[in-house]
């Protein structure tokens, strides 16, 4: 987190800005401190801008701590990051994105007792036990499709990390594939890189961006200038990819 501050010269209110990090994107927060506001802090997201009203005596450090606690809520209001899993049912004939391809979902029932899923050319075929009650079928389809994506992620994503590790000279301690609700990736203090399996839904160049972002954290454990210079060195068009990732995250099918 970084900050810039300026003073309007008004003793009753003071405007400044703070920068916070939300899922790897820098977000500017407009802060208005007021002598009339005694205790409470109001955080609002209006028209895509984060605004904070705070008591005059509150420090930036205190505000940053409060904003960090509300990060998930703020990210949700801004519409960025990983969206909540969609609730609409997946149906036969629906389109499932996979690494820049479109697969057609085929749903059928079979006589076995377990659901299974397999890729058949440009289709993803899910077969459900015929004994499964109809009202449980949508959840079973979603579960089968998610399991297929997750298995593909385990095959594909570690290879992307190793390729970029070779290019960058930044070597993670290990790579884990995770079901993360609000993040595409993270880099732990022990050098573990965790990646969201949903990255395989998108064009491959977006997973590349997340991998480069997390590898750069092995050298810079912050989002200040040095970090972004490292990302830009490896991936000059990282900003465009980050915007595309945010947009893609709003269209998740699973
Ligand atoms: Zn980051």
Which percent range describes the beta-strand content?
Answer: 25-35%
The CATH superfamily name of the largest domain is Metalloproteases ("zincins"), catalytic domain
CATH-derived topology of the largest domain: Zincin-like
Head-to-tail CA distance between termini: 32 Å
Average pLDDT number: 89
Question: Would you spell out the secondary-structure blueprint of this structure?
Answer:
Layout: E1 2-4, E2 13-22, E3 25-34, E4 42-46, E5 49-55, H1 60-69, H2 71-78, E6 95-98, E7 101-110, E8 116-120, E9 123-129, H3 137-168, E10 174-178, E11 185-187, E12 192-196, H4 204-217, H5 225-234, H6 238-249
Parallel strand pairs: 3-5, 7-9, 10-12
Antiparallel strand pairs: 1-2, 2-3, 4-5, 6-7, 8-9, 11-12
The protein binds zinc ion.
What can you tell me about this protein's structure?
The protein is an alpha/beta fold and 254 residues long. It has 2 domains: 77 residues, no CATH class; 155 residues, Zincin-like. The chain has 6 helices and 12 strands. It has a 5-stranded mixed sheet with strand order 1-2-3-5-4. Strands 6-7-9-8 form a 4-stranded mixed sheet, with helices on one face. A hairpin with a 4-residue loop joins strand 11 and strand 12. Helix 3 crosses helix 4 and helix 4 packs across helix 6. The chain starts with a strand and ends in a 5-residue tail after the last helix. The site of zinc ion has 4 residues, from helix 4.
């Amino acid at each position: 987190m970084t900050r810039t501050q300026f003073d309007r010269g008004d003793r009753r209110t003071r405007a400044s800005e703070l920068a916070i990090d939300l899922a790897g994107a820098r977000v500017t927060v407009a802060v208005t401190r007021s002598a009339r506001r005694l205790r409470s802090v109001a955080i609002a997201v209006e028209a895509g801008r984060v605004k904070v009203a705070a008591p005059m005596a509150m420090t930036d450090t205190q505000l940053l701590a409060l904003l960090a606690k509300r990060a998930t809520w703020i990210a949700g209001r801004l519409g960025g990051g990983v969206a909540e899993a969609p609730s609409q049912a997946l149906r036969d004939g629906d389109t499932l994105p996979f690494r820049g391809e479109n697969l057609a979902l085929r749903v059928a029932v079979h006589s076995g007792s377990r659901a299974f899923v397999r890729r058949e050319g440009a289709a993803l075929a899910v077969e459900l036990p015929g004994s499964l009650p109809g009202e449980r079928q949508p959840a079973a389809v979603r579960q089968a499709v998610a399991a297929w994506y997750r298995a593909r992620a385990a095959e594909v994503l570690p290879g992307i990390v190793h390729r970029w590790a070779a290019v960058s000279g930044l070597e993670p301690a290990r790579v884990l594939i995770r079901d993360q609700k609000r993040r595409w990736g993270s880099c732990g203090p022990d050098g573990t890189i965790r990646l969201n399996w949903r990255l395989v839904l998108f064009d491959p160049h977006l997973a590349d961006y997340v991998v480069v972002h997390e590898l750069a954290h092995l050298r810079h454990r912050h989002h200040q200038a040095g970090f972004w210079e490292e990302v830009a060195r490896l991936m000059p068009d990282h900003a465009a990819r980050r915007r595309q990732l945010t947009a893609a995250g709003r269209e998740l099918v699973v």
